[in-house]
Request: fold
Amino acid sequence: MVRVCSPEAVDGVIRKAEEAQRSWAERPTWARAELLLSAASAVQPRVEFWAEVLARELGKPLPEARGEIGFALATLRWFAERAVAVLADEETDDELGRLVLRKRPYGVVAAVTPWNAPIILSMLKVAPALLAGNSVVVKPSPLAPIAVDGLYDELGQHLPEGLLTVIHGDASTGEALVGHPRVHKVAFTGGNEVGRHIAAATAGVLTSTVLELGGNDAAIFLPDVDLSDADMARAVVASFATAGQVCMAAKRLYVHSSQVEEFVAAYVAAAARALVLGDPMVAGTTVGPVITREAQQRLLGLLADCESRGARLVPLGTVPDAAVVEGGWFVRPTLVLGLDDSSPLVRDEQFGPLVPLLTYDDIDEVVMRANAGDLGLGASVWSSDEEQAFAVARRLDAGFTFVNTHNRTGMSLRAPFGGVKRSGYGREYGEEGLLEYVQTCAINAPASFRPGADPVDGAGPGAYPTDPHFTRDTPS
Reply:
């Protein structure tokens, strides 16, 4: 049970966050980092408790929930350990004068987060925003609010009051938050439809945004790919972690036509070992239910469409307790063969445990097909030749391309993540993820006008600046 914040109450929350932010920004970065590291250590013993809460409310297998929360705290620590260096002023004092570039926080940041990985996807906004000197108001999805509410309440108890707040509500509450004129940065992860609404609302008040939107990630297996058990296990989990409900999941598999039979056999065998559909609280389960009955019915509708097109459906993994699966919002992991690129399962982001396998004959063809469509979040290239894999990866329209893996096993805290095309803009992770929450502001004293300086020849009251490193051919 969480308390709903009405749209009318949002203003009070933001004003309190604004007040807390002023004094927080005055603290040096190292002091902010130390306090956040201390807060992370204080909540670390509660990981198991909140992992169980997350697993129960979301249907995510317990080990996966535990890993998500542990990774979120590790992410906070990673940002904290680098914040002092990344956010430091840059000062130059030379023959051109004195220039200081300082990193200024935005003020109040709104973080609007989805249900599928609510802890890590909120922490990717909360940690860098707070370290940069902002305050944060988090609005999680109504489909998974409890773990976010509880974990950040505990974290916030070790921070100044009002600095980190979680609010809950429907779309009207979200609109009041992202469209508020005292919110100066909005960070959102979610679907394209909501992303467009947020972009429109923030445009009305000229608020800066980071949008990480949907993906229809292509995984390209080159003809020399290693079909070892380990590689195939990574390929399977790349599509079916969190029941396939991951923006960067491998959603289209492209396999060379000469290798299809061998690939399918290896993939099905790996899935039999890796995928266990069932109760997320039972040990050994690796795939739980999908988020809602509506999601289940949409996915079953996609399967029916595939059958109507003559596709071959290959059920994957094992189901130890059929009664549990029949009584819940489960969808059996399925590999779909025989579709063309116009099929909805190929063309659109399915966001569930269904994945099409498509064949290709040459590299130019598969690159063109992988790049088709409006989305460009992630992709992967699989090959025994790393140089060849990187050469193909450079040709893909993707913000993040994995090599010989895909999804979370291929992430790195140092590597910026985000989309191209309709998959959004802005970056999370890496130093870029910290810099998203500051504005570079310049203080400049030209050499000609510093106290005691000799005026530069031609430096009249309306002259353009000159730089001795360049020729002075431009007329003044």
In short: The CA atoms of residues 31 and 131 lie 9 Å apart. The mean pLDDT is 95. The chain is about 40% helix and 20% strand. Residues 62-86 form the longest helix (25 residues).
